[in-house]
Amino acid sequence: MTALLSVNGVKTYYGKIVALRGVDVEINEGEIVTLIGANGAGKSTLMMTICGSPRASEGSIVFGGKDITNLPTHDIMRMSISQSPEGRRIFPRMTVLENLQMGAAAIGFDHFDADIDRVFGLFPILKKRQGQRGGTLSGGEQQMLAIARALMSRPKLLLLDEPSLGLAPLIVRQIFDVLRDLNQKEGLTVFLVEQNAYHALRLAHRGYVMVNGEITMTGAGRELLKREEVRAAYLEGGAH
Amino acid sequence: MEYFTQQLINGVTLGSIYGLIAIGYTMVYGIIGMINFAHGDIFMVGSFVGLIAVVVLGISAATPFFLLILALLVVIAIAMALTAVWGWTVERIAYRPLRGSFRLAPLITAIGMSITLQNFVQISQGARVKPVQPIVTGGYTLMESADGFVVQISNIQIIIIVLTVVLMAGFTMLINKTSLGRAQRACEQDARMASLLGINVDRTISLTFVMGAALAAVAGVMFVLYYGVIDFYIGFLAGVKAFTAAVLGGIGSLPGAMLGGLLIGLIETFWSAYFSIEYKDVAAFSILVIALIFLPSGLLGRPEVEKV
């Protein structure tokens, strides 16, 4: 397998504060890779650094063989990467349909009809809500819309930041099922940031654990799930 | 009644000009949250470009009708294009480098740009008032009262009102239906997310300035044709009034800017007609004060609450 995305020794700063202290991550084509860690560990920062905002001050990020470290965000997002970011960031005063049209902005509208049918197939509720404004959707619907919007640009790599946050377990399961399907049937590569370590590690082929801006552990998803340190830090006392 | 109708016509004409300028204020505020105080002066530049084009093309009231219409369209096109370049340049050199700086910084440079534009035009075109002979003449008598008061709508008023309606309709379509307009609304609502979807936010902001300047240029040309005199200072008062219109309508709201412009034009005209012409500016600015106190989000603005 070839690495679709490789993050090599990336350091990111917010002003003088170090957020990432030299992170190495590799994601191969067709994989689901998850990144788990506590609040403030730097998971979302890594997601955003891959997209060029904030920019990595050291190290390099290579996607599909091309160095994207210093590209502007909008150019990176036109290279078949898309992100469903932390907090979903639905455009609140646009309809569901318009939000999805925005998702297709990076690739144009040549196969828009087919693409929208595809995401409506994945999340049928969005079809019913298509004329409704994004800000009026429930949390679960907004999350589905955020993922659907990210899929509209036909990405090879989908970056997903905490899709389960604040959602009912049933909805989380529905969303994770869709991700598994997309990965198995269409070979979509997924990089998933989660606090919900149990679900994420069960879904993922491989996982990374991040503490304080550094990767401290890596391994196959189910193997990490068995490790004592992971259980103690992210699972025991939590759900399940 | 006749007197009232006449003032109504005059007010709508003036309001059209304010509305066209106000759109520039409201769109820029919507997308980057700053008041572009140089926008009134962009309007002034537009009126000068229009005046120069009129002189260069040798248009006068003697020009045959169809040729005149054609020539005016050319003047408007030239004014829109050149003024848009000015708007683009102002954003590029004065505002973009300060993006991400503290909130007052672009406001201060905006005032600086306003003074720069005024001085540039004053030096390059001279400080004296520039008169232009009436180009679009004639009109229609709508009604006449028993005591001989004649209600008229002049051809230039018809042109201003029709052109404004067409431009505003077109512009509303552009914002609501095209992918460019959608990108602008996306940047307005969440610029970071828009960039995550592959939208070039800087370019979208530039285009917003270009559009605002082009509409202000049309207002500038109409101003020249309607009043027949301009000078380098007209941008200040017109700009502040259009800004008042944008605030009254709800800053950030496109229909709000149109409605606000119309209302300010009407209020100013009726105040001059029925109370005192010396205090017409006071009337317009009192509206600004009243709106800020009692209706801070404007007539069509949205309150700053959102479901999360």
Automatic annotation (TrEMBL), chain A:
GO terms for biological process: L-amino acid transport. The keyword Ubl conjugation does not apply. The keyword Nucleotide-binding applies. Signal peptide: none annotated. It comes from the Bacteria. Pfam families: ABC_tran. SUPFAM superfamilies: P-loop containing nucleoside triphosphate hydrolases. Residues 5-237 form the ABC transporter domain. CDD domains: ABC_TM1139_LivF_branched. InterPro entries: AAA+_ATPase (IPR003593), ABC_branched_ATPase_LivF/BraG (IPR030660), ABC_transporter-like_ATP-bd (IPR003439), ABC_transporter-like_CS (IPR017871), BCAA_Transport_ATP-bd_LivF (IPR052156), P-loop_NTPase (IPR027417). GO terms for molecular function: ATP binding; ATP hydrolysis activity; branched-chain amino acid transmembrane transporter activity. Keywords: Amino-acid transport, ATP-binding, Nucleotide-binding, Transport. PROSITE patterns: ABC_TRANSPORTER_1, ABC_TRANSPORTER_2. Belongs to the ABC transporter superfamily. This is Branched-chain amino acid transport system ATP-binding protein. It comes from Bauldia litoralis.
Automatic annotation (TrEMBL), chain B:
Pfam families: BPD_transp_2. The keyword Cell membrane applies. Keywords: Amino-acid transport, Cell inner membrane, Cell membrane, Membrane, Transmembrane, Transmembrane helix, Transport. The chain crosses the membrane at residues 12-35, 42-59, 65-90, 102-121, 149-175, 205-226, 283-301. GO terms for molecular function: L-isoleucine transmembrane transporter activity; L-leucine transmembrane transporter activity; L-phenylalanine transmembrane transporter activity; L-valine transmembrane transporter activity. GO terms for biological process: D-alanine transmembrane transport; L-alanine transport; L-isoleucine import across plasma membrane. This is Amino acid/amide ABC transporter membrane protein 1, HAAT family. It comes from Bauldia litoralis.
